[in-house]
Specification:
alpha/beta; globular; 4-stranded parallel sheet; 6 strands; 13 helices; single chain; about 60% helix; two-stranded antiparallel ribbon
């Protein structure tokens, strides 16, 4: 398939580039920067060339240009050069992510701080979070689940990233019309990677999140819920042995606070059998952004 053949629908492009579909459509209408092709069913499809152009424009916007200025600059660029520049940009992000992971796995805190400082100097906060921190959290979680790193490594990296993520949360705008949310690890759960990923997902969508982390006694959690009065509470569970205790706590909170929506996620949830999935289905939030979106919408 060549660069001029359509193969991506708008949902795929939106996910690939980290841009809302509505924003993409607005750019197309206002600036006529690209014209998606149509398949036999009449559906809009984007080519590799379209994706290269959009990546280039996003890169300029992240560097401080308005979209209008970026489109103006686009007229002087060759498509092949655009694709090359965008790929080089992605390579730099990927390289910094790999360097950061290596430094953290060797407990080199000073080097890790230097890499992140450099990343924030080169890229926007959103780019660092999307291209480095979120992917790094996923990778560390996978390494730990496969037994390729120790629990000590996972806890050290979690603590480091929790501090860094906490320091940039205030830069992410919150939408006062969205409900308040509490995020907490389930009973006896000490692994925060999954919870941090989910918290980033919520914050990037404008939710005000009260992040409690691990080690919160059940009675204290109930006190916080009563005081904060959130609309939603999410618990993360990684270890299978803790899962049913987490689910029972969720049921208890739902009974005590009838207006509270309780969600449970994490690696352990994937081990539930059909019977338990049916019993606790209303609380299971899923394991990816699309499933989380569906749960939050209440569908």
């Amino acid at each position: 398939m060549n660069r001029k053949e359509g193969k991506y629908n708008i949902k795929a492009v939106s996910k690939l580039l980290g841009i809302q579909a509505g924003t993409l459509r607005a750019w197309e209408r206002r600036y006529e920067i690209i014209e998606p092709v149509r398949n036999q069913a009449g559906h809009r499809l984007y080519t590799d060339e379209h994706v290269a152009i959009l990546k280039w424009l996003l890169n300029k916007v992240e560097k401080g240009f308005t979209i209008g200025q970026a489109v103006g600059l686009l007229e002087d660029e060759e498509i092949t050069e655009i694709g090359t520049e965008s790929e080089q940009h992605d390579d730099r992000v990927s390289g910094m992510r790999n360097d950061l992971l290596d430094a953290l796995l060797h407990f080199r805190e000073q080097k890790s701080n230097q890499i992140l400082d450099q990343a924030f100097a080169m890229f926007t906060v959103e780019k660092v979070m999307n291209g480095i921190l979120v992917d790094l959290l996923y990778e560390v979680g996978q390494l730990w689940e496969k037994g390729e790193i120790t629990t000590a490594h996972e806890h050290y990296i979690s603590a480091f990233l929790r501090t860094k993520i906490g320091s940039i949360f205030h830069t992410l705008p919150t939408d006062g019309l969205l409900p308040r949310v509490i995020c907490v690890c389930g009973p006896d759960e000490t692994h925060e990677i999954g919870l941090l990923i989910f918290t980033l997902y919520l914050r990037r969508r404008g939710y005000e999140v009260i992040y409690l982390g691990a080690g919160i006694p059940e009675k204290d959690l109930a006190t916080v819920v009563e005081q904060v009065a959130p609309s939603m509470l999410f618990m993360s569970c990684t270890i299978d042995a803790h899962l049913h205790q987490t689910l029972r706590l969720g049921e208890s909170l739902r009974r005590d606070f009838p207006t509270l929506r309780v969600g449970v996620g994490g690696a352990a949830v994937q081990t539930l059998g059909p019977e338990d999935q049916s019993e606790y289905g209303e609380m299971l939030v899923g394991s990816c952004n699309d499933e989380w979106d569906i749960w939050i919408r209440g569908t």
